[in-house]
Design goal:
Layout lengths: L6 H15 L6 H8 L3 H17 L6 E3 L3 E3 L2 H9 L1 H10 L3 H14 L6 H8 L3 H14 L5 E4 L2 E4 L3 H13 L3 H8 L5 H15 L1 E3 L1 H19 L10 H7 L3 H13 L5 H13 L2 E4 L4 H22 L6 H19 L7 H9 L1 H10 L1 H7 L5 H12 L11 H10 L2 E4 L6 H12 L11 H9 L6 E4 L12 E3 L6 H14 L1 H4 L3 H14 L5 H12 L14 H4 L5 E4 L7 H14 L7 H12 L4 E3 L1 E6 L10 E15 L2 E12 L7 H11 L2 H8 L4 H9 L3
Amino acid sequence: MVAFNSTEVIKAQNLLNYLTKASGFVSLKEILETFNISRRTAFNWLNSTNKILRENNLDEIVNIPNYGYKITDRTKRELNSNHEIIKSINQSSMSSTDRRTTIILLLMSESKDVSINKLSTRFECSRNTIIKDFKAINDLFPNLKIVSSRLGHKIASDEASIRITMYELLLHQNKVAHTFIKNLDYSMTETQQAVVNIQKKLHISFSGNSIQQLTYLLVFTQWRIANKKLINDSSNLQWIADNTDSVLATCEELLNFLTKQKIEAAEVVFISKIVLCSQATEVDCVNKNLYRDLDNIAQEIIFRYEQLTEQQISYNLFTKVLRNHLYATFFRVKFDIPYTSSEVDEIKKQYPELIKFTAIACAPLEQYLNKKLPDSEIALICLYFGSVNAKGYQDFSNVDKLKRASLAEVLVVCSSGIGTSAMLYQKLSKMYPLIKFSLPLEIKDLCEIFKHNYQARLIISTAILPSSKYPIPVVNVKAVLTKSDQNLVEKYLQKEMPNKIGHNTSAVNNLVSIINEYADVKDEKGLRLSLDRFISPEAKQVDKRDLPSLMSLLPERRIKLIHNDGSLNWKDVLQTGCKLLEKDQVIDDHYFEKIVKLIDQYGPYMLISENIFLAHAAPSESNKNIGLSLIALDQEIEIASRNQHVLVACIFVLSPGLKREHEKALEQLIDIVRNKNNVSCLVNAKSSKEIRRFLLSFC
């Protein structure tokens, strides 16, 4: 049968195949569990399929209550011999995402205008649906300028914007885009090998996903160049030449080889940018100054995050991993190449607090770039911080990692080997405490593991892995597990190791039986409860609704406006803020000295937004209670330390809690000061009452 073009439609086709191959009736419950879909989706698929079957004079799917669904023998024979029917089902079942992608590809392929009527006929939908599609495309791809006339729609963007749009589709693992590129008359194998080869020349190690994305984009590039669709913007050529080693020359050689012709500088610059923006586990093609700067920035970001969260994560391996990620972030932001991912929205939804702290911690990179980091980049960096806990990253050698993997029952893998898979590892370990998971692995580690004795029965990977390549099943999931991912993992674990994922009852029963043989148990119920908690300990989570809010920690008496006549220095202002807390017995008189020492040692790292400074030190004997004060100045004051200079109009002084009880108030404060308009209102307030009233409107 003909393969479909999208993940959702592939599932629909698989449902039809499933029914065709079934020897008898298939229950609705079996369909829902097999394809992990809702009842509504199942009925939609069945209705769409029946419509096409009717149009082709075939029997509809038989449905008998209490038995299920079945394809008649006559229909089975026709389906297996008539591929055109499958194509019809493909066309009518196309999802809105795939239809919009197809529209983009049509516009890229056509030199003339494409009419709404033509598209409506092609996709068997209304004109209004196509109009909505164009609006959605404009929202999703703002760089892709689509103009309309009485003749229809066409792309009016420059070639670079068209290439970037394709790059975004590839970042989303868009199956329609993949199919389109595969059908172009160019060798995927040759192109992928060329990408693999340039790693050695550039001393760079791309992630598995990056190799795939570069391969597809380069095939698309060959097609565009062959059709005289050329990029003409060569800006940043000199910057790349000055700040990287051999990148331009290697990319020029790559393009010359693939296109079999001499390539213009603008094309070389564009591919060089994409190469530099691609995620990698090792990067050694930038000059020493940039390497040093990003290494220092990674350490500063980690330090700021630790100070905000009271979490110790300064491990050498974590610093290295974060720095390697920051290379791609730095180049994407510098070159204005967007990063999009289906995971970003899930990260924002599941880790809103972490994102706020990460946004503040990333200020050194924003200052270095002189640009604000996009939310998607903040979310990706947040993923790294979210993957560490109290024990966090430890510097395991590669030998130790592979040795542990050989004893694991489930191998945890991602394209970069750490960061995303570390987040996945933590989640899985909590969900299934009886299962031995490997430490986060790279794709290349798998071949080494399977050369020797191994116990693993399943691979769970955030990178797309072909199941046929490995001797055990593969489950491809997102780093931040969605509900659908969790159901998929559960299904495979039920099949491969059912005794490890059932409720603890069976394990507890066995343990109680053993204990009863050797001891006189007085309280069997209590023993069972204790064993159950030991096997699957519940994560202790603080209900943030019970934590003190910003306004409960900042009464009006601790807000003070000061006239700055030029004679004040930052220590005077800081001490005034500390005195307000001392007066309420929140801190002692040594707390001021601790903050000054930190600023002298690390510079004014506590700047959480333009003009807003959060002065605080780690919990100690100097912190008697949780509290906050605010000093607002009518004229900015300079804080200078360790060759860093910042201008400040508001200084918040925070006394944190021993058990991070200040987090809710800190999140509320960060929400406020990350908005420039809010900062302007704060620094221009005329009284303590006005400041408190303004802050109260957000809490």
